[in-house]
Amino acid sequence: MDVVQVSSAPRTVEEIYKDYSGRRAAIVRALTTDVDEFYTLCDPEKENLCLYGHPGGMWEVTLPAEEVPPELPEPALGINFARDGMNRKDWLSLVAVHSDSWLLSVAFFFGARFNGNERKRLFSMINELPTVFEVVTDRKPAKDKSGVDSGSKSRHSTKRSSDGQSKNNSKTVDEGYGEDDDEHSETLCGICGSNYSSNEFWIACDVCERWFHGKCVKITPAKAENIKQYKCPSCSSKRGRQ
Questions:
Q1: Residue by residue, what is the 3-state secondary structure of 80-109?
Q2: Where are the domains of the chain?
Q3: Among the four residues 70, 88, 90, 111, which has the most C-beta atoms within 10 Å?
Q4: pTM (2 decimals)?
């Protein structure tokens, strides 16, 4: 298992936030887009397993670090043991809560030497992102951004063909809407948590109404043209379990 060495650990608020965002995106992917693979890897017959999110966006289910004490705070131990004794949705929610706790512990481990203002700024940046639990359970973040999102969705709920006819399609934002940077300034990707940028393709889920990078949910602009109603990975897996 790859371990971040102390010598190369992030030191500034921005570096720690980037590290947090990468680890968070990896865990969100494990519990949504890659949830079936994650579920299979968490075999209750195996030893104590942990879910790690790495800064580069990769996730890993493996045994805990052997170093005592470990170089970084460790995630929840033995997440695999409860898998078959709980409802799948409840188990994933439990893993999500433990993952949120781990992500914060790693971030504040790196920032332990910060002063009060720096810690406050770090937490404020982290708090702008939905928690893993909120993403996995489809809960809305505590901060209400409905004003921004509703305006964006109403404006982009249809795409126009060359003859001016509207096409009822999934809500998308692509390179053609560069003038809407300010309107989307607080829109966050439901997978990686990064802010909207006009030079990237985005698509909105028609069920939970969250926005996503096309690359994060593996949807291209061409593929989106043929989707009448788009469901994000979380909503798709939720419907599949009902």
A1: CCCHHHCCHHHHHHHHHHHHHHHHHHHHHH
A2: 13-137, 187-241
A3: 111
A4: 0.59
